[in-house]
Design goal:
The complex is a heterotrimer of chains A (241), B (174) and C (465). By secondary structure, chain A is α+β, with helices and mostly antiparallel strands. Helix content of chain A is 18%, strand content 17%. The N terminus of chain A is likely disordered. Chain C has 465 residues and is an all-alpha fold. Chain C has a two-stranded antiparallel sheet with strand order 1-2. Chain C starts with 20 loop residues before the first helix and ends with a strand. The chains are: A alpha+beta (241), B alpha+beta (174), C mainly alpha (465). At the B-C interface, strand 2, helix 2 and helix 3 of B face helix 1, helix 6, helix 7, helix 8 and helix 16 of C.
Amino acid sequence: MAQDVKLSAEAAPRWALVVDLDRCTGCQACVVACHAENNVPVAGEKQALYGRWMHWIIIHRYWEGEYPNVKARFMPVMCQQCTEAPCEPVCPVFATYHNPEGLNAQIYNRCIGTRFCGSACPYKVRTFNWFRPEFPGPLTEQLNPDVTVRSRGIMEKCTFCIQRIRRVEIEARAEEREVADGEIQPACVQTCPPGALIFGDLNDPDSRASQLARSHRSFRLLEELGTAPAVIYLKGGEANV
Amino acid sequence: MSDTLTLMALFHGGTDTAEAIDALHALGIPDDKVLVITGVPYPELALGRRREWLTLPYIVLAGAGVGLLFGLFLAAITPHLYRLDVGGHPPVGFPPAAVITFVFTMMATIVSTFLGVLWEMDFPRFGPAPYHRLVTDGDLAVLLEFPAELEAAVRQALEARHAHHVAEPERVGL
Amino acid sequence: MSEPDRSTPFDERLLLAERTDQEINQAVLRPMIQTGWGFWALVTVLGAIVAWGLYAWGYLVYWGIGVTGKNRPVYWTLFITTFVFWVGISHAGTMISAVLRIFKADWRRPITRGAEAMTAFALMMAGLYPLIHLGRVWKFYWMIPYPNNRLMWPNFQSPLMWDLVAIFTYLIGSMLYLYLALIPDMAMARDHTAGWRYRLYRALALGWRGTEAEWHKLHRALGIFSVAIIPIFLSVHSIVSWDFAVTIQPRWHSTIFAPYFVIGAVYSGLAALASILVIVRRGMRLQEFLRAEHFDALGKLVMVAGMAWTYFWFSGFIVEWYGNEPVVRELIREEVSGHLAPLFYLQMSANLIPIGLLVFKRVRTTPALLLAATLLVNVGMYTERALIVIGSLQRNHLPFNWGLYRPTWVEVSIVAMTFAGFTLLYTLFSRIIPFVPVWEIKEGRLRYTLRRIGRLLVPTAAEIE
């Protein structure tokens, strides 16, 4: 929600995701978890080959070098929740805007599908519902009731699992305590086997995410474009072979 | 009170018409009792007529002003009515506001020009009016109102300049 | 006394022709009233294409945008390309009627109505595309600021909102301009027809008689319109170009886009106008009114616009090529020697060859050659728009996201629908509304006489109005 009333006088959190590329094995568990948590439809092989895959988080893979010295470089890329998002001002109906917690919010029921935001995003992380999403067979049993199922013609993207953020914030407020660091875990963060994804509050200097963001290994994707993303990548050694 | 007669005369050429109007002036018939109807726009003073003062430019300016204010409202006020932050931009930036204000100003200018000219011409005005169909075939029609006693002099002046079809004007349904 | 030297074939000049007003009226009205089987055949074929396109659109709305060839990253393809193309075509009308009216160029007189009609219909076709390309077209009205219970306003920072307002303004402006200049001719048609035509023209003539006051007011209004519509037409295509230039997509984020698009629009629109006039002249037997002098002047204007387009294209290209930014360099490589090369060379040849051809008076004054040259221009300009919209989107900052686009029958059908729709509207228009502005031609004839300068007899235009 745009207006989130806080009980305490503390400043609003600024959510960030840290991706440790030295730990990431490219197993794609985060991709599957995201599908399950956010009711993301499966596009099918033919559509995916044509560039219409629906993953909100995807493992970018690049091949480097010539045989036999070939290396695979991969990194998980999701919506970077840019502070100066190029996708936000171009939507004619305000279907995407920047909320006070630093998230790039996507309002599904406001989107009329002009796809301007998709063209404007330099990371191309926005997914469009080209058709009416189908959830065959028993997949309908595991749809998440906390997340809207989108119809055709709507843009969607990673939201840092805002439904999980809200649930923890509401519980914490009900129990009259602060949200603890590491209590909020988006689906990908929760699932990642080597623990390469860390979620936290950049406005809290003691959170694990803040500490990692200050690491000498940190960089941001396409930093030179000036989008000021809230996703911080860590890369130091030759961990990916 | 003396009777006034109304006549319509058709001429083939502009020079004839202008001379006839001069002759009518000499007979004492004022300009506002003479109406010239043409199928082609003649230059303003070619037929000896006075230039009319128009309110059209003021209507257009007023319309442009309304458009400017409306554009400013949409671009600069509505973002504050429902505040949504986008892309690191302030809610009201100069370039987008300038574009929107400009376009609405121009839209209002155009529409007010059109409506203004229709209002000024009293259009649409259907119903019978003095007219002759030969006007659109190139003839010039002069419609005049004058006191009845001048009739003979008027007719003579008109016929001397090759007027044809001098008669009571037909009220053609327009 | 020696015989005067006739160096120019001015007896072929429209404004010096020995015709009475009555003959001119009949020459204009006759092709409207007599329709042969060719007309009906054309209307049927065009109607069929439009109907098929509407079916394709319905299919698109029902099944979703996925039935087109769009994908990630090519989110915008033929619909936006054709949208930009139609907005471009619409610029010629204003160029001819407004700019040339201000310059008092008499060769515009028989052309203005055809040009303004082209503008109005091109904008109608262009205005369909922001609806067609929407994912949820049934919610399009959210872009309009209307009272709603959420008290929400649309985002006026978005170039699409600027598009909406600007195109609407231009459409209203050009239709009103077309109509205003039409009123005296409606009166003429009212006086010479019967039946349903009489009733229609009578309603549209608004009771026009032709009094001096009416002419004076009409002239003032047309004068104001001519001046006011120029900033509108300049801003419309600039705004359309900013749909692309305000993003940070490589090759789109270029400051030259606004003037480049405007000049491309003038080039493409004037060429389209020339093509249309050649065809209409033949189809409606208007050889009397559209003569060599008009095509000569129009051809020169197309040539000049083409030269200006080349200059702006090169200005954009040289800095992109020189800057060597990685993605831009890759895009240029794709155009010059990669997958897009056939389209790129088609664009350049189709845009540049006509400029060279139009240098020759022979080409400008032979209808068939002029038609060929100007059709080629529009092939080139359509390709140019496609390369800008589709070509640039295929590459971006992260190579994992590079893509390829293939059109589908849905997109092609809908594009064909707008071409057929434009032609259909134009054909119907030409049968209902007098194509040639008769009163403007008669007004022009008042200005022209023959004058003797030494041994020459020359046409002279009077400095009136």
